[in-house]
Each structure stands twice: as structure tokens, then as C-alpha cells.
# Entry
Amino acid sequence: MTTAPVHERADAAAWLAVAAGTLGALMATLDISIVNSSLPTIQGEIGASGTEGTWIATAYLVAEIIIIPLSGWLEKLLGLRTLLLLAATLFTCFSILCGFSTSLTTMIIGRIGQGFTGGALIPTAMTIIATRLPRWQQPVGNAMFGATAILGPVIGPVLGGWLTENVSWHYSFFINLPVGIALITLLLVAMPYEKPKFNLLKDADWFGVAGMALGLGGLTVVLEEGEREQWFASTDIRWLAAVSVIGFILLAIGQIRARHPVIQLRLLRDRQFGSVVVMAMVVGVALYGTSYVIPQFLSGIADYNSLQSGEIVLLSGIPMILLMPFTPMLMRRVDIRLAVGAGMLMLAMSAFLETELSPLSSGASFAGSQLLRGLGTVLAMIFLNQAAIRSVPPSQAGDAAGLYSAARNLGGSLALAGIAVIQEQRMWLHSRRLEESMSANSDFVQSYMHAQSAMLGGQATALKSLGATIQVQALTMTYADLFWMLGVGIVAITPLVLFLRPLPQNAPPVSAH
# Structure
């Protein structure tokens, strides 16, 4: 008589460690977007322009991109418990600095600090799941992490909006204090101490570390500031471009010289993995870009407050919450090419639905597209997450996960920087075209201005009103352009799903960052 195998079960300490990792990841992912809906309020109080304000979000993502691939090496260097305690403590301190900020410079310093420390909390959460839970219980941990990774950027705007409207925007950052204390307590109780391995410092890929910081940081600043500084007509932009090029050269040197490069770019040679990284980057553009653009539209056009804007962004979380419990079953039964392809097309369709925006559009105009976007995000991200790890040998799974996560966040960073550039250009173009379409000699224009002058009490007031109307129309057309470009971009890379290989049948989900 054959007895059923006895599965090893994780103990309470293991689940406490998983809870700590998930809480840390949630705190870090929330802060990616928690400022989005309250950004107009924050900009006004710290004296930042709309273009400068994008740095409040971009600085966090850039720092995260740099630290995520380093987290695996830092974990070996310091030990998982020490790394997490250090990251959680510093993240909480930088959050308090952001809350007390009265200038753009202080805010950006705080956000960079949050990004560096929060970026370490995200991938290490999956390391805890992979090392502390038996394989048959890991899908539960993966579902917990998946919920935080996807819902964090969605819940962030509504939480930030509620705090801004009912308390103060400062508490969007102060809220991390009690969460940070709870996280540190859990880590002290549940995580075992590991002795640091400082001998790894002599073998570190310092070229790669410096290259990522200079290359990615310089590139993002060039994209962010290029339009305002007239691109290469500016000495600062030329220097920053040179810094970025030097950074990528150093990164390439590290790939050649280091025995263990800090980021394994050679993995991109694999056709499937390269395709996954490209699609992950575009999904990052869709996820982070829309969670930034929609609150800006609702605030600038529909006169929504921070909370109302956040509630609209939160709509995309509904299908995420409903579908997340079923993702392990879907991964076993649905072909990855079909799932990812359907998810990407849903994301594209949701963007195209928003190209019909008008100055009269309100939050209701985004309801259908947001629900569709949430469903597409779950299908695309969950399956791509698994494909990233299955594309490479098990010994390189950690490197693949770090590169995949960095690509996803790089997409978000490029989206925020690109939005600022495109918005300024298209706003100018649409304004000029609308002005050119209204000839001063036109009978219609003259009669309209005469009626407006009589209604508003003078020609000067009527001209000011006309100028405001043109700006609103131009801004609406600009947002429609942004969504159209996003939709076209997603459609263009969707055929890459043909390079994906089916996941092993009945294989349990694997851990990824």
C-alpha cells in the first residue's frame, strides 16, 4: 500500500518573514505612485512647475532601477536580514524627509533616497518566498507578492488623494512611519541573522555599478530636461548626455571584465527573454504612465480633486483583485502566448478608448478603459513574470528576475520623462493650430467675440477667456495624443509573443522579483 507523500509545511516564523517581505514590497510600490494624484498640490506648496514636478515621481523610479539589479549582490554581501533592516529604516527616514520638504531640492533628495531603499525591499520579498517556503506553498506567497506589485501603483493615487484632501499631502509620506516600525519589528522577530561577507567587495563589478548609475541617471535627466533646455543647444544637456554615454561604456566594460557582472545583459541574447524584457518595459510604460496622466487630466480639465482622481485610477484594481486568486490555475491551463497576447491587446484597446477625450470628459469617461486596463495588466504581467524566469537556466533565475524588474521600472521612468517632453511639444503645436484656424476677419469669430465681450464686460476679458478655451482644447488634444502613442506602441511590440515558449504543463509558479 502506497502512502501519500507528506509535504513539509512552513512554520509560523517563515510566514511572518513572508508577511514582512510583502509589507515592505507594498510600502515601496505604494510610494511609486502615492504622489501622483496629489502632485498639483505638492507642486504648488514647494514652488515647482508642472514640468519640474514630474521629477518627484521620476527620481523615485530612477533610483529603484539602479538598486534592483544590485539587490541580489547586496543580499549576499550584508545578509538578507541586515539588508532589509537597513533598507526599511532608511526608507522610513527618507519618507519623513519628504514629508517635511519645503523645496523641490529637498523633495527630490528624499525621493531618491526612498527609491534606493525601497527598490531593495521589492526583489528581496520574493527571495524570502523562494527560500523560506516549501515549493508547494510558494504559489500562495507569489499571489501575495503579485497583489502588492500590481495593486501598489494603483492604490497609491487614491490613498495619496484621500490623505491630501482630508489631512495633508505630508501624510502621504508620514504614513510610512507606523508601517516602517511594524516592518522592522517583523524582521527582528522572523528573520535569522546572517554574517556579512565583506570579502565579496573585492570581486564586485564596480564598473557595472557606476555604469548603471551614470548611464540610467544621465539618460533620464536628458529626457526630462532636454525639451526645456532646447536639447543639445544647452551645455548642461551636452554634459549629461556625455555622462550617460560614459556610464553605458562602463557598464559594457563590466560585462566583459567582471566574473559576475552586476547585471547579466548577455541574457538578452535569448530570444524569448529579450522579448519578455521589451514587453515588460512597455507594460511598465502603460502601468506607471497612465497612473500619472489620468490624475493630471482629471485635475487640469475636469477639476477633480486628488481623492476623486485617485478613485478613478483605482478602478483598474478591481479586475486585478478578482483575478489574482485564479492566476496559479491560469498559468497551468492557458497558453502563455495567448494570455500575454490578449493582455497586451487589452492594454492597447484601453489606451485607444481614451483617444476620444473632450474638454467635457469626466472620470466616468475612464471607467471602461480602466477596467479593461486592469484585466490586461494582470494577464500580461503575471505570465511575463513567469516567462522571464523560465527563459533561463535555474542558476541564472535571480539575474533574470532583476533584469526583468529593472526593465519594467525603466519603462515607468521613461514614460514619466517622455510624457513631459511630448506634452510640451504637442501642447504648443495644438495651440498654434487652433489659433491659426480662427481668422480675425471671420464673421463667426467677430460675432463670437462681440457676444463674449458683451457677456463678460469687455474685449480684454473676452480675449482672456478665448485664450483659456484654446489652452483647454489644446491640452485635451495633447492627452489624446499621449494615449494614441501608447496604444500604437503596445500594438507594435505585441507580435513578440510569438517568441514565447509554453510554460511546462502543471508546473508550479516560480519566484521572481
Observations:
- The two ends are 42 Å apart (CA to CA).
- The chain is about 75% helix and 0% strand.
- Residues 1-5 have pLDDT under 50 and may be disordered.
- The first helix runs from residue 12 to 33.
